[in-house]
Automatic annotation (TrEMBL):
Sequence ranges assigned to domain DUF1648 in this UniProt record: 18-63
The organism of origin for this protein: Thermoanaerobacter siderophilus SR4
Transmembrane intervals: 12-31, 51-71, 83-105
Keywords: Membrane, Transmembrane, Transmembrane helix
Name of the protein described by the UniProt record: DUF1648 domain-containing protein
UniProt keyword annotation of Transmembrane present: yes
Length: 107
């Protein structure tokens, strides 16, 4: 990646939750009414959420990870390598969300 792109994502890391939320909004009508989030060892569903709750789940998780990475840097307590953790956390959760949408829409 170009250093300019890394600097942009470092400054605007909140863009990942926005992109994920937009993708979830477009996929909303294709999702089933109840989405399982946890299964036991026998394959029984332990915890399921509605599709409205699901579209907010990953973007909020991304936002919390963004804040958790940025807050120590803002306070000057801990130096984290410039932009790498921001980009990695946002991108991994974005790909995870796309994977979950693929699995739930495919059914």
């Amino acid at each position: 990646m170009s250093r300019r792109i890394i600097n942009y994502f470092y400054k605007c890391g909140y863009i990942f939750p926005v992109i994920t939320f937009i993708i979830n909004i477009f996929a909303y009508k294709y999702l089933p009414e109840s989405i399982p989030l946890q299964r036991d060892t026998f394959g029984n569903i332990n915890y399921a959420v509605s599709k409205l709750e699901f579209i907010f789940f990953i973007p909020i998780l991304q936002l919390f990870s963004y804040i958790a990475i940025k807050y120590p840097q803002a306070k000057g307590k801990k130096k984290i390598f410039h932009g790498t953790y921001d980009i990695a956390a946002g991108a991994i959760l974005l790909f995870f969300d796309i994977f979950l949408l693929y699995v739930f829409i495919r059914k």
